[in-house]
Design brief:
single chain, alpha/beta, 2-enoyl-CoA Hydratase, Chain A, domain 1, Rossmann fold, N-(1-d-carboxylethyl)-l-norvaline Dehydrogenase, domain 2, 3 domains, 6-stranded mixed β-sheet, 28 helices, 19 strands, binds (2S,3S)-3-hydroxy-2-methylbutanoyl-COA
């Protein structure tokens, strides 16, 4: 957690060392300032090199310190950069691997920058709802020019060092030793004066106002609910319109504004939530994982095909097993068609398409899949069907193969019990379309081996999925919560709302799609089948009958040409259907409910707090390891608005006592028994605590 100091000949080398990415936390900043001061005080030292230990020069400011006193405590990042820039001896930034955010800003304050090729260079603050707050908006345009700098800062995307020659005084050979090469460079320039300072340069961009206005309009159109992108444009504009120190002051003001916004806190919450999701308290990080060099997928339908594509995309060969040749042929043709449409959109090269299809083979025989390292079944959602499959897998799969089920509602422990190796069984619940949706619910059975769980988590990263661990319960995390959300949606129809109003309110809140458009997309018959089971298994749980009446009209959704809404060929728009709305109104009358006007605010509170309350139950039952895991499920699998951080984070920002008060109000209304507060929610609200503490 420091910065090491060594002297090589006449060159002092300061190495930032705060694993894992040399985040510039207070301790590291302090050590780096001390190192520069030590070098300046040593007459034997003629030049200074700053570099980073391990896998980064620096990943930037230490995000973990934000919104704590440490973030701004002296020496601040500004002070460190000013110490380098005002040094009376040349300071050389020696960059490798990763140089981002405050790390890049530090290097811009240095007199010289040298790098290895392939280093990822970025100012990614906008992805955290921020902007470069240590001079980056003023210095980068002075080095790269207004347009390239603005593009880097507004997108936040990394650029490889060799593609930024203007940023570096020298780019070494790929196999060069960064420290040795930087020391040699420093010796070469040690006596050169004056020391070059980026702040002394000018940004030259004729007719910059027209470009900046165009940039403002473009960014406004794409930024949605996020304020940071436009703030990035305005602060970069200051690099042209203001003197350097005024520009830095303006940048500071705007940074301090953004760091307090809920949007930025939500993005930073999601950043850490995604990373902490792969940590399981009782599974050590060094748990050995099983090698996954080949896969088998059972079922070549929409899910099976999508799952197979994930493995193919990761370069893992797949044997796709079906029971009938035409189903197998159709499945393989669909995979090819999906790749070809990516090819047409320029998202895939022909070479990659051929390589992936070359990794795919089909079979009708279980005997062909026994040597796969993992098999994922995506067969019909019936326990009896799963039993047949898993008993067969138990017979044919080699010892140590992982047996994964893609079930979305069935009991993984029951499925594991169909085999003599329950420790090798795990749930890998992909979300449709499986080759697109990032979320992967990893369902840990009570017998699932720790190495199997660790392997599944590592595999989810390889498949570029967000793996979230769930315990075994009906619906795991996501579907169990969405059931309460859908219940409230149904009750709202009975009380006076219509599908279009509910969907518009939810979409205005930020959901990608409201509950009724989502039902029409996924298929209303899926919920219908679950409710029919519920009516038998859990008669105490009430549901609105509107969704059943809709299915009895044969209106399953887009797949039957109409559900809650009508759809026209080639048009994704949902058109209200009069007969459906008349059915809803009639059903209220049949229930003796006098329909009332319902506010959008009530609609959103009832939909979202239904998620929150069920999430609290899931937490206290230990089905989810942490509230941020629940947030990740909703951000990556259910279209919950990113700028609100997920249902549990959102409840924290509303204030749990306020959530509880709203729930207590709804508990007095129609179907009020659905609003029984989870004990954890009551406890946290009473103690003034948060879900995401
Ligand atoms: N601060 C604190 N921790 C960080 C961090 C950071 N900047 N970056 C990464 N980590 C942790 C991360 O949580 C994880 O922790 C571990 O490092 C490995 O991360 C004033 C205000 C650098 C490209 O936005 O993009 O500078 O889970 O799994 O895939 O203008 O991390 O191991 O406990 O992602 O090799 C701007 C964010 C900050 C860069 C490495 N910088 N980080 O990727 O590893 S704001 C960023 C990344 C700033 C100044 C502003 C990536 C990476 P754990 P990882 P990776």
């Amino acid at each position: 957690m420091t910065a090491e100091y060594q002297v090589h000949g006449a060159v002092a080398v300061i190495t930032l060392n705060n694993p894992p990415v040399n985040g510039m936390g207070l301790v590291t900043r302090t050590a780096a300032v001390k190192g520069i001061q030590q070098a300046l005080a040593d007459d034997a030292v003629k030049a200074i090199v700053i570099t980073g230990a391990g896998k980064a020069f620096s990943g930037g400011a230490d995000i973990k310190e934000f919104n704590t006193p440490k973030a701004l405590a002296e020496p601040s990042l500004h002070t460190l950069i000013a110490t380098a820039e005002s040094a009376t001896k040349p300071v050389v930034a020696a960059i490798h691997t990763v140089c981002m955010g405050g790390g890049l800003e530090l290097s811009l304050g240095c007199h010289y920058r040298v790098a290895l090729p392939g280093a990822q260079i970025a100012l990614p603050e906008v992805k955290l709802g921020l902007l470069p707050g240590a001079g980056g908006t003023q210095r980068l345009p002075r080095v790269l020019g207004l347009e390239p700098a603005l593009n880097m800062i507004v997108s936040g995307n990394p650029v490889s060092s060799e593609k930024l020659p203007a940023l570096f005084d020298e780019i070494f050979a790929a196999d060069a030793d960064i420290v040795r090469s930087a020391v040699a460079f420093a010796e070469k320039i040690a006596d050169l004066r004056p020391l070059p300072k980026v702040r002394d340069r000018k940004v030259d961009y004729p007719n910059h106002e027209a470009f900046l206005q165009f940039s403002r309009n473009t960014v406004k159109a794409m930024a949605g609910p996020f304020p940071a992108p436009l703030e990035c444009v305005e602060t970069v504009a200051a690099s042209v319109t203001m003197k350097f120190d005024d520009g830095v002051k303006f940048e500071r003001e705007r940074f301090m504004h953004l760091i307090q916004t809920t949007e930025s806190k939500a993005l930073r919450h999601a950043f850490f939530a995604e990373r902490v999701a792969s940590k399981v308290p009782d599974v050590p990080a060094d748990t050995p994982v099983r090698a996954i060099k080949s896969a088998a997928v059972i079922g070549a339908g929409m899910m099976g095909g999508g799952i197979a594509m994930n493995f193919l995309n990761a370069g893992i060969p797949v044997k796709l097993l079906e029971t009938r040749q035409e189903a197998l042929d159709k499945g393989i043709a669909t995979i090819r068609k999906n790749y070809e449409s990516s090819l047409k959109k320029g998202k895939l090269t022909q070479e990659k398409l051929d390589q992936r299809m070359g990794l795919l083979s089909g079979t009708l025989s279980y005997d062909d899949i026994g040597q796969a390292d993992i098999v994922v079944e995506a067969v019909f959602e019936e326990l009896a069907v799963k039993e047949t499959v898993f008993r067969k897998l138990d017979e044919v799969m080699k010892p140590g193969a992982i047996l994964a089920t893609n079930t979305s509602t069935l009991d993984v422990d029951k499925i594991a019990a169909f085999t003599k190796r329950p420790q090798d069984v795990i749930g890998t619940h992909f979300f449709s379309p499986a080759n697109v949706m990032k979320l992967l619910e990893i369902v840990r059975g009570k017998e699932t081996g720790k190495d199997v769980l660790a392997t599944a988590l590592a595999l989810s990263k390889k498949l570029k999925k967000t793996g979230v661990v769930s315990g075994v319960c009906d619906g795991f995390i996501g579907n169990r919560m969405i059931e309460q959300y859908s219940r409230q949606a149904g009750f709202l129809l009975e009380e006076g709302a219509l599908p279009e109003q509910v969907d518009k309110a939810a979409e205005k809140f930020g959901f990608a799609m409201g509950p009724f458009r989502m039902g029409d997309l996924a298929g209303n018959d899926i919920g219908w089948a679950i409710r029919k089971r519920r009516y038998v298994e859990k008669p105490e749980i009430s549901y609105s009958k509107t969704a059943d009446l809709l299915c009895e009209m044969g209106r399953y959704g887009q797949k039957t040409g109409g559900g809650w809404y009508d759809y026209q060929a080639g048009d994704r728009k949902a058109y209200p259907n009069e007969a459906v709305n008349a059915m809803i109104v009639r059903h209220s009358a049949d229930l003796g409910i006098a329909r009332r006007k319902i506010s959008d605010e009530e609609i959103v509170e009832r939909l979202v707090y239904a998620l929150v309350n069920e999430g609290a139950l899931i937490l206290e039952e230990g089905i989810a390891l942490r509230a941020s895991d629940i947030d990740m499920v909703y951000l990556t699998g259910y279209g919950f608005p990113l700028h609100r951080g997920g249902p549990m984070f959102y409840a924290d920002t509303v204030g749990l006592p306020n959530v509880l008060a709203a729930m207590n109000k709804y508990a007095k209304g129609h179907q009020g028994q659905a609003w029984r507060p989870a004990p954890l929610l009551l406890k946290l609200a009473e103690e003034g605590k948060l879900f995401n503490s």
